[in-house]
Amino acid sequence: VAAGADAIGFVFYPKSPRYVTPERFAELGRLVPPYVSATALFVNATPDEVRAVLDAAPVALLQFHGDETPEECAAIAAVVKRPFVRAFRVKPDTAHAELLECELAYRAASPWFSSLLLDAHVDVYGGAGKVFDWSLIPKELAPRVVLSGGLSVQNATDATVRVRPYAVDISSGVEEAKGIKDARKIAAFVAAVRAADAITHSETHHDHQGNPGSSPGRSS
Predict the structure, then answer these.
(1) Terminus of the chain with fewer CB atoms < 10 Å: N or C?
(2) pTM score, two decimals?
């Protein structure tokens, strides 16, 4: 929060090194200030498990990172009345049409659907710090997605400028060890994203001067 993050992720997957119990979340979640979103990450959780977390402290957004179908995500979101993000693990052969169809399926399934979070495909749930080919993201989809997967202080500016996602998500890239965050890396990462915002704002301003028909880009 001090570094300027817009959202804080809490992982409720017991097999993750970043796992937070509902009891611990009751302590941490109440420290999140206004206008910073607490995001609760689940992997194949039951509605009761999700409800236990929401009863512990305020949650603004759900993130489903398991094998949940559109219908399962929709059902849980409807019960707890919270918007949700759905993680999509991008493979080297993922087609533009597949990503667009996936977004359409979740949007059709639930009014609570917010966005896809694009991560690299690995054989485990959750982030693995791997980068995927950003060119696989359709340009018309990019402004609506959360970009994740292998982001770091070193590539954050380039990723944000090239993809222009709605937001970026990072975990292992700002850690000193698994599950242990590094405050200096977090501050540097946020600064790198802000630098990308400045670049895209400058480019947009230039486009408006030269082309009255252009529209502003979305920044994260």
Answers:
(1) N
(2) 0.87
> What is the residue-wise DSSP string for 67-104?
S--HHHHHHHHHHHT--EEEEEEE-TT--HHHHHHHHH
Give the 3-state secondary structure of residue 173: helix
Q: How far apart are CA 73 and CA 84, in angstroms?
A: 8
- Please tell me the chain's helix, strand, coil percentages from 3-state DSSP, rounded to the nearest 5: 40, 20, 40
Residue type at position 160: T
Tell me whether strands 61-64 and 167-168 are parallel, antiparallel or unpaired.
Answer: unpaired
Q: Which two tokens stand for residue 154?
A: 């070193």
Q: Maximum Cα–Cα distance for the chain, whole Å?
A: 55
b/e per residue 24-40 (b: at least 16 CB within 10 A): ebeeebeebeeeeebbb
Q: What's the pLDDT score for residue 77?
A: 98
Which amino acid, residue 99?
L
Residue 208 DSSP class = H
CB 37 within 8 A of CB 19: no
